[in-house]
Amino acid sequence: MLDQKQFERVKLAMPFLQRADEALAAELKREAQFATIPAGRDVFVDGDRVDGIALLLSGVVRVYKIGETGREITLYRFGLGQSCILTANAILSQKSFPAIATVEEDAEAVMIPAEVFRAWVNKYDLWREFVFDLLSERLSTVMAVVDEVVFKRMDRRVASLLLRQARVQNPMRVTHQEIAAELGSSREVISRILEDFSKEGLVESGRGTVEVLDFKGLESRSVM
Predict the structure, then answer these.
(1) For the chain, which domains are there?
(2) CB of 61 closer than 8 Å to CB of 43
(3) Of 196, 195, 200, which is closest to residue 213 (Cα–Cα)?
(4) How many Cβ atoms from other residues are within 10 Å of residue 133's Cβ?
(5) pLDDT tens, 182-192?
């Protein structure tokens, strides 16, 4: 059960709930549970039975797959005011979770039980609209990942990733293994690409850090 302060936080994080009628608002207060989830915790792993869905009030969760060779690839992340479409799909289809969801930054969330989530999809137009919007948004993200993996060379993908992260923090604290896990590659491949970028004066790679030195040059490598 949520208290009024927690309920107000949920409405701020998920503005669509400000349009909720009294019945949905009352059920949300009664059925949802507030939870704190520390960084590093797996919310679900591949094959888990899904008994609820998290609506994030803070923090970041990474959703990814691990292949038979042990390589990882990130499917998407979700944060404030968002939720996990694979969790929603598993609940609606009553199937197991098909990936791994790990908390990257300490998270606060409200947890909705699976049976309640399913009932609300049938009962409330507003909730159904939220779920369909979630499906549409995440499907686009996953399709972009598929497009990159299938059609884009790894050096271009590394350049694009470094540019995105460097615009937030430069130098960035990231290891070659973390870049490999993000892109579904191996550490050896990423190390060779970063070595090439370093020789061209595009980046400087240190122990656990990468700094972009030439943004324009790296941008050209991302589209070559």
Answers:
(1) 4-123 (2.60.120.10), 150-221 (1.10.10.10)
(2) yes
(3) 200
(4) 11
(5) 887 888 888 99
